[in-house]
Amino acid sequence: MPKLKSHSGAKKRFSVTPNGKVKCQAGHHRHRLVSKSTEAKRNACKELVLQEGQANRVKKHWLPYSV
Fold first, then answer.
1. Can you give the residue range of the structural domain that contains 56?
2. Contact between 27 and 50 (Cβ < 8 Å)
3. In Å, how far are 20, 44, 59, 61 from 4, measured between CA atoms?
4. Where are the beta strands (DSSP E) in the chain?
5. How far apart, in whole angstroms, are the C-alpha atoms of residue 47 and residue 37?
6. Strand 22-25 and strand 47-49: pairing?
7. Is residue 2 part of a domain?
8. Is the pLDDT assigned to residue 67 strictly greater than 90?
């Protein structure tokens, strides 16, 4: 059976930790920041750890050889 290709966009957006958790950058912090509160802008700059179900989907379909 041939090797599966990793999704090119997913490689740029997600990273997998040694424990198998999937990290990504929070959204909504590129433009239209004037109307957002300081707290909302600060929280949007954080890295998120995906929930287990979402992480399994990302690893299975988009990053098959991550961990």
1. 8-62
2. no
3. 19, 33, 12, 9
4. 14-16, 22-25, 47-49
5. 19
6. antiparallel
7. no
8. no
